[in-house]
Amino acid sequence: MIYLDSAATTLQKPPAVARAAANAINHLASPGRGGHRPAMAASETAFACREEAAALFHVTSPEQVVFTFNATHGLNIAIKSLVKPKNRVVISGYEHNAVTRPLHAIPGVEVRVAEGPLFDQAAMVESFRRELDRGVDAAVCTHVSNVFGFILPLEEIAALCRAKGVPLIVDAAQSAGCLPLDFQALGVAFVAMPGHKGLFGPQGTGLLLCAGEAEPLLEGGTGSQSLSQTMPEFLPDRLEAGTHNITGVAGLLEGIRFVRRQGVEEIGRRESCLIRKMGEGLTALPGLRVFLSEDPEAQGGVLSFLMEGRDCEELGEALGDRGFALRAGLHCAPLAHRSAGTLETGTVRASVSPFNREGEICQFLRAMEGLNKP
After folding, report:
1. Are strands 327-329 and 347-351 parallel, antiparallel or unpaired?
2. Cα–Cα–Cα angle for 83, 86, 91, nearest 5°?
3. What are the backbone angles phi and psi of residue 110, rounded to the nearest 5°?
4. How far is 329 from 7, CA to CA, in rounded Å?
5. H/E run at residue 303
6. Are the beta carbons of 20 and 246 closer than 8 angstroms?
7. Mapping DSSP to helix (H, G, I), strand (E, B) and coil, where does residue 188 land?
């Protein structure tokens, strides 16, 4: 099988990730829940993971790095900390349901969509500027579209929000680990990310970078201030009720170390090269609609396409039968499809990681050529 679905989860992991998770199962207890060696070792592992993440994303203090179950969990914390009933919120036109559904669940929230053509970064900046000028209480923006790989101009959007005093939440589900992300320089309120995608950790892990106050989604034991019946005021304890997924955290620690050794820029460069090769090869085939940016700087390691006269789900299944793992459909992001004009059809999506090779892309293109013949 050739795996081309890393936008959902990276299947290929550095070997150290599995070794660390296995070691954790056998040797680590609950962090913060005892003075014995297995508990202390777990606490050391958790803190080391916070330190590595803080260094990677330029976070002032490791305590600002909160463990979550996934990016969706982190986005729910962030959104429900900042957005109150009847608030006005601006989002991009390329957001995932992990953003739109939590907003929809808050009564009376007015959601304004910053519209912009696919891969047009300048138009996206201007659209955010217009909505911010109208007055909003908060903003949410994905860094990279999970459907099209569109890299939104996050630095410019963050600067606009800072100038207006509007707190910004960033969904880094598709950028963490493959695009530079400087938490301090951005000056945003929160950045949410999964552990199981570009950070190469196990499923069921995630990180939420917090600039300041946040409201917990869950209440319970934290191993601290046990006499109080309210959650601690300090991070990360305020947002981490219950036993940690220390097995996942141990694996995530090794995934982050891998990213730091490889270098975010190098990982991003490799993924971009693979997607350009794939996109250009598909574009050369007749009867295909390929969503490839003319500007390589506007697209990450994700590519969507359609075949004329063929349902995208059927095409995805046919590719699966030939040994290629991709995803077809709406990818939990109907707003992005509405923005790009593919809401009625969905797309077939290919996404890569640094573990993919050019030879795999060539095999995929040959398979597509075969499927494209009458």
Report:
1. antiparallel
2. 55
3. -95, 110
4. 14
5. strand 302-307
6. no
7. coil
Range 15-262 classified under CATH 3.40.640.10:
yes
CA separation for the pair 96, 333 (Å, rounded): 4
Specify the amino acid at residue 212: G
Q: pLDDT (tens digit, 9 = 90+) per residue, 258-310?
A: 999 999 999 999 999 999 999 999 999 999 999 999 999 999 999 999 999 99
Mean pLDDT of 235-255: 96
Percent of residues, the chain, with pLDDT higher than 70: 100
d(CA 93, CA 141) in angstroms, rounded, equals: 9
Q: What is the mean pLDDT of residues 152-157?
A: 98
**What is the pLDDT, as a whole number, of residue 374?**
64
**Cα within 13 Å of Cα(14), Cβ side:** 21
pLDDT in tens, 109-143: 999 999 999 999 999 999 999 999 999 999 999 99
3-state helix, strand, coil in the chain (%, to 5): 45, 15, 40
C-beta of residue 136 within 8 angstroms of C-beta of residue 88: yes
Indicate the domain borders of the chain.
Answer: 2-10+263-371, 15-262
Q: What is the chain's mean pLDDT, rounded?
A: 97
Residue 73, CA distances (Å) to 118, 163, 192, 214, 216 in order: 27, 28, 8, 13, 11
Radius of gyration of the chain (CA): 21
Structural class in CATH, domain 2-10+263-371:
alpha beta
* Nearest Cα to Cα of residue 368 among 302, 301, 277, 296: 277
Long-range pairs of 105-112 with CB within 8 A, sequence gap ≥ 24: 106/79, 106/80, 109/83, 109/85, 110/86, 112/88, 112/136
